[in-house]
Amino acid sequence: MKDKDEVIKHLKTCPIVQVACQQCKVSRATFYRWRSNDPKFRRSSDKALKSGCSFINDLAESQLISLIKDKNPTMIIYWLNHRHPAYSDQQLSLNRNEQRLILNAIIANDIKPAYQMLASNVVKGKISRQFFNSFSSIINRISKSNTDDNGNNKIDLLYKLFNKQKR
What we know:
9 helices, mainly alpha
């Protein structure tokens, strides 16, 4: 019983089963056997895991707030996008000309103007931060080649992404 209590105690501060088991010198198989055979332990471990996740979330949020206090612009933007209704994700509304400018910058392999236009449209509330993040990951994958590993035209894929976001 003492081993079970120790595992529960560790899960409350580190909600990773493997880590808690290692700290208590208990195998994961034993942990899961206890969960299967002991409904009280299962409830306690579920509660401890939830508590541990809340603890880590609080820790992460306090670090985020520290970075905001240090005037870290990325963290300021992150906080506003996720916590302030005026800055939260909004629907994409780039016109055809703006789409063409971004795509031409990418085709020319000059990604900086594409990022600048997207960023300015995020600030204006014309496109969502979520779209910007998705699009940024696509831009990062684009090389001088206009086709992906499957032979798909990357520019066509980008147009599809724009049109999907516009609906």
